[in-house]
Amino acid sequence: MSPLTPTPLTSLRVSKYHIPAFHNFPNTSLRPYPFMIYHSAYPSSLSASSVEKHLSSVGIVDPAWRFPMYRQHHYHSTVDEVLVVVSGSGTLCFGGSTSNPNKVQIDVGKGDVMIVPAGVGHAMVEDKGSFQMVGSYPKGSENWDMCTGQDHEKDTTWETIRMLGWFKGDPVYGDEGPSVDAGKDT
């Protein structure tokens, strides 16, 4: 069992966004699942290893990397992604471009969790100091890609995104949690 306890669901503040397609970034236009932010889902006492242990104990995702975030706008067509800020803070852009009028540009900090559906463009705009995240993908997802909005990607990746399933539970909370019913409130 994980020693890290997330914020109780009754106290969790969640922001949900549906981001329309922008140029060659499908964002949330292909499936009913929103981009979500769980604000301060973990206590400030977290560490990268405690987050990895907690996510592994819940059993919905497998932690895959520790890194800030690429500055190049990109999306994944083969997997949904869970990002947990484990140190510092930063400004991130979701939507494929800072010029997208429907982008979600946010400041995130230690303890914030982002649920990023396949297709949602994302990039780091600014590292505000010691910014690092743990990135995770659904259990059994061994091949994730990195698409950058090139013209040819639309023909090969958008149908892949349409066909994807969703998390088998909430990556942070398990059988309950915001992502469990995410596609039902659209």
From TrEMBL:
InterPro entries for the chain: Cupin_1, Cupin_2, RmlC-like_jellyroll, RmlC_Cupin_sf, UCP019307_cupin, YjiB-like
Span of domain Cupin type-1: 35-154
Top-level taxon of the source organism: Eukaryota
Pfam (any one): Cupin_2
Signal peptide feature range: none
Record's protein name: Cupin type-1 domain-containing protein
Annotated organism of origin: Kwoniella shivajii
